[in-house]
Amino acid sequence: xxxxxxxxxxxxxxxxxxxxxxxxxxxxxxxxxxxxxxxxxxxxxxxxxxxxxxxxxxxxxxxxxxxxxxxxxxxxxxxxxxxxxxxxxxxxxxxxxxxxxxxxxxxxxxxxxxxxxxxxxxxxxxxxxxxxxxxxxxxxxxxxxxxxxxxxxxxxxxxxxxxxxxxxxxxxxxxxxxxxxxxxxxxxxxxxxxxxxxxxxxxxxxxxxxxxxxxxxxxxxxxxxxxxxxxxxxxxxxxxxxxxxxxxxxxxxxxxxxxxxxxxxxxxxxxxxxxxxxxxxxxxxxxxxxxxxxxxxxxxxxxxxxxxxxxxxxxxxxxxxxxxxxxxxxxxxxxxxxxxxxx
Length: 343
Ligand code: SAM
Ligand code: SF4
Ligand code: SF4
What we know:
The chain is of the alpha/beta class. The protein is about 30% helix and about 15% strand. The protein has 11 helices and 12 strands. Strands 7-8-9-6-5-4-3-2-1-10-11-12 form a 12-stranded mixed sheet. Helix 3 (about 115-125) packs parallel to helix 5 (about 150-165). The two termini are about 30 Å apart. The model has no long low-confidence stretch (mean pLDDT about 95). The chain binds S-adenosylmethionine and iron/sulfur cluster (2 copies). The site of S-adenosylmethionine has 20 residues, from strand 3, strand 5 and helix 11. The site of one iron/sulfur cluster has 12 residues, from loops.
């Protein structure tokens, strides 16, 4: 690894937001078919996933991250699709962990492959993991993941991550009306007092294959009053600017939960995230309809200087605030899928 180059002046977008957080999708494939993300009717046996040579190589990702860190990125999250289905992932983690500018190197996973990989990921330098789990009963969870994966498999993943030193674990639960709102309280009961931080996520209109309707969203207010009906909650201050999860502590001291209210209480005003798809398109919003082709630049032999200028220009031109202006029209836009852009 060459010596790190000095930091550059940090770009601000047209709304004064810095670039701080980079999410990298390392694959568009997944071993689940969650109904709200990769519904089987759309992502079936004939679905055309990206061919291998179209994916950014680990060296290409590393080169891009080098430039992003010079522009202010301090947090890198590997995601997908399911990041753990990308072969040799610990090698990429090792390459990224070597950047001193990357203060927070994390991964979001459905957890199933963690028992086999947690130790290698930790050894390679991964700091933490976030694990998704939408219910703690098999009937509900299997209906949502549509891949016949029981809850026990994810629980083993959580334990493996903790044993490897990848805690404290954050757990993501997407709540979709009619599917798993009855699991909110059981999930709170199961994880309070364990040190694992459960975060409830409002179901979002990412992509255009999940048939999203506003009525399907169980709002943060509903979620909080459900949990609060059994366990009184107290709001907590954010730990840092741009934090998307609103935090609440159990009044009896049994830990904390989070709610990510991207639909009912949008947080575009402080959004400092960029997303890199598995084939090297840069997106400045989760709900974007088009990206910027960084793979073409990198494979075309772009110099470091031009790459920096290009990334700076993209960020400085950013005006996104989709969740603030969501409407019947925007919901119909041909947005890219979550499994491709990276959640
Ligand atoms: N496969 C990994 C996983 O599920 O954790 C990483 C990728 S997944 C796209 C990242 C996160 O996005 C998961 O926690 C998932 O539940 C969430 N997600 C996917 N589709 C969503 C939607 N339509 N609304 C809200 N969250 C969603
Ligand atoms: Fe796969 Fe994650 Fe999407 Fe579920 S949410 S289908 S696990 S990428
Ligand atoms: Fe950021 Fe776009 Fe989400 Fe707003 S809608 S918080 S700009 S990713």
